Each structure stands twice: as C-alpha cells, then as structure tokens.
Amino acid sequence: MLRCLPWVLVAVAITGFGWAYERVNTISSRVKVLSIKVDGLNETIRAENNRIQVRTFAIKSQLAQADSPIVFVGDSLTEGALLPTQICGHQVVNAGIGGMRAASYADLAKELFGPIFLVVIAIGTNDATLNNGSFRENYEALIDAIPAQKRILVGAPAMEDSTASRAFDPKQLEVDNRTISEIAAARHIPYVAPETSEGPNTIDGIHLSRNGYKRWLSPIFEAVAVECTK
Q1: Rounded CA gap, 204 and 106, in Å?
Q2: Which class for 172: exposed (0-12), middle (13-18), buried (19 or more C-beta within 10 A)?
Q3: Domain presence at residue 86
Q4: Tens-digit pLDDT profile for residues 106-120
C-alpha cells in the first residue's frame, strides 16, 4: 500500500494540474473576450467624441460667419431639421447635435456661444431615457449658459411606438415637457407646445418625417417671427 502511495499522489497532482490548467485557459479566454468588448466600447466612445467635435466645429464656424444670429439649439431632431437661411433678416444657425441632453448641452454651450439675437431651445427627447429629478436644473442651466437677447422654449414632439422608441419613456417625456412649460412661464419666455396631430409623424418612432417636421416647425417659426417684432 505504501509503495502505491507515491503514484497515487502523482496521479492526484497531474489531475489537479490539468484542472488548474483548464481553469486558467477558461479565465484567459474570458479576459480576452472582455478585453475585446472594452476595446470596442472605447472605439465607440472615441467615434462619438469625434462626431461631436466635428459637429461643434461646424457650428462654431457658422456662428463666426453670422451677425446677430437666430440659433436653434437641440438634439438630432433639430440637427436633422431643414431650416431657412434667414428669418426676419437674421441669419439662422442650426446648432442641433445628435444625442444631446439638457445637461450635456449646458456644459458645451458655455464655450460654444457668443452673443445671440434669439435662441430656440428644442431639447428634451434624450432626457426621456432618464427618470431623475435633475431635468429642471439641467434645463435651466442650459438657458443660463446661452447669452441670447431673446429666447423661445420648445417642447419635444411625441414619439410613436417602434423598436427604437421603446428605449424611451413617453410618460417621462410628458413630464419633461410640462417642466419646460413651467420654466417658460416662470421666466416669461415664449413656449411652443409640441404638435399633437395624428401621425404618422416619424420615420422610426423618434425622428420626424417630412410631415412631422412641418407640424413641429411651423408654430416655432411663427413664434420666432413674433419675437422679432418685439
């Protein structure tokens, strides 16, 4: 029995080594997969940052060419809007940046804008993915960060059911729109409520179609024209 013991120990050791080696390989494979995912995430973040930098550069360039402009601030809904080059004699600058929330644009606005004749703030859709109590604070910070003589606040248009829109909370969007209207009333700023006409008004449940833009922009342009005469 004692003579067999060393061989038993060797067998146990070999078995244990094999198990440990297999575990190390498994962990190594998982670490490699995780590393690939992290690299992919970093690449996505870099691409997003580059996109924002390019878009910001274009906005700065247009602002530098415009005297006393009317500026439309917003997210991808604003960025995708076909705006006139002038309204009531003032050059129009589309400063929409896809993906922006009130807080992220407030940080950017501090270094982006100089004196503006009139700003139209049309942001809020992306905030509807967040259920928190900071939207009012962030939105007011955005208003204060833009040095405009006149302001118009715009509610975010309603979404339509789709795979893309299910990432958002339509009830939160309604709450945020009420918050915007309350801020407008408290600050004596014109507020344009979103159009509630029956659809379809979007191309994917979120981004506006041709008819959706017409219904959304028409009352905004009317509000701008009124403010121009004051």
Answers
A1: 27
A2: middle
A3: yes
A4: 999 988 999 999 999
Q: Alpha-carbon distance 129 to 174, whole Å?
A: 12
Domain count, the chain: 1
Sheet of 116-122, strands arranged across: 86-87, 90-96, 70-74, 116-122, 148-154, 191-192
CATH, residue 112: 3.40.50.1110
pTM: 0.79
Share of the chain above pLDDT 70, in %: 77
Beta strand spans in 163-224 (E): 191-192
d(CA 175, CA 55): 29
| Residue 147 lies in domain | 66-228
- Residue 205 is given by DSSP the state S
Whether 38 maps to a domain, the answer reads no
- Angstrom distance (rounded) from CA 62 to CA 112: 11
**Residues 6 or more apart whose Cβ sits within 8 Å of residue 109:** 73, 142, 145, 146
Domain assignment present for 202: yes
Residue 198 is assigned to a structural domain of this protein: yes
CA 117 to CA 58: how far, in whole Å? 19
